[in-house]
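Aim 2 progress update. The chain analyzed this quarter is reproduced below.
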Amino acid sequence: MQNKQKKSPIPFLFVGLPLAFSNVFSALLGGGALVWWLFASQSGSSAADTVGTLGSGLLGIAALVLGGVYMRHSRNPASPLYGNSRGALWAIVGICLGIATIAFAAGLVHQAPVPSASQLDGTYVWDSKSPYETSTVQISSSTPETISYEISTINLLHLGNLAGTAYRIKGTDAYAYTDSNSNDGCRVTIGFSGDGVSYYTSSAASTSTASCDDYHGAHGSFFNSVKHKRNVTVTLPTITELGFTDQDLAQFEGLLKGVVSGAQGFIGLDLEEGSTTHRLTSKDIPDALAFSIETPNLYNGSSACDFSQQVGYCEYAAFMKDGAGHYWVIGGSDGDTFTYATNDPAWQKKLPDVFAKELKRLGLTADSVVFTSAVSESALVGGWTMPIVGGASADDSQEIDFAIENGAHTYNSYIHSRPDNTDCTWALAGSTVSIDCPSENIKDSFQIKSLTKDSLTITHDGSNETYSRVPASAN
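Predicted structure tokens:
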């Protein structure tokens, strides 16, 4: 005979009573979880995103568990909840709400993680592999909710620019931001992927607003949906593809800075009138390797250049080297004079025949060319002065001084005897002088056009400046 034990009220209070109302708890928790998730997903706050995702997900799980417990007991004949169809209905509601909330919360978790501050900062470049066009996206001040952006494009000589603050778009699988200010009618959306790639789209905010075309030149454009990579450069051809070396390029740069390096990106491109790159042959220097590069008309990218028009849309460079270490280079634009330089003393005052023929083909003559030559350091050393037109007094002057002391190349400049740039160094490569002033964080350079015993003419920032030598007794 079994002994009957007296039932304790504790199991009823802590087990039976909660079990009896687990269906109601399940429904309430499921509804609350869903409301919490809806609030979190629309809040625009990363903190609310995180708390809401975790919290609503946990409540959804609790609703699912409680609803499942009630349903299990409602099907057990030994349970006091057996056969309670109305109670089971509440449990089913709780289970469904719990499942829905868990699914929605999982969707937020699956979404790419919210970026931390400055994670997206950097420069993103589209490698167009073309000198005609490029696009750059500069991202700064990035937070989980906003970024500052500036989009800069070049298409031929036509520039484009869009800048502003963009705000994160909710419910996307990638980092995506949109500019709600819409740049006065041009809406910008910027997206990111995990491999350091960005893209952007620009479109009119509505049919009644201004077009994004208002933010670039007549023949320019924005490059929508094109991938940009962080911290890359545009891949362009160099003169190494023509049989020259990087050391050769350095020699050409020393003679005429920027002439060959500025034109080499156009190597191999074709125009309607023919190729931009030509192999040249010199009769008077037969063993020389020589080429010319002529850009198209950069206003529209299709027509040939007319160097007699002086409009500044075209660039030209011709360059040559021989087996003895001599280099020749000539170049210019249709908006400026042509300049010629060589390190061969025999050719510093005359043009090789192939350069003269090229000038004739372009509609120019040797009289329009400025002749420069490789300059010796000893000829440059000393003080030089130039009057300042419109200065505070009639004797205001700009003075520059080059010195070599114990092998160190020192440079100083003065404005009417007052220090301007001091404690600087200088270096001479061909006819190009480079200035470095570390204490002032200044780097500069200029081209020597002509140098005699008493006169120095340089090109600096596009302007010619002529200095007279300061007598040694005045230094």
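Residues 281 and 292 are 11 Å apart (CA to CA). The chain is about 25% helix and 35% strand. These observations will guide the mutagenesis experiments scheduled for the next reporting period.
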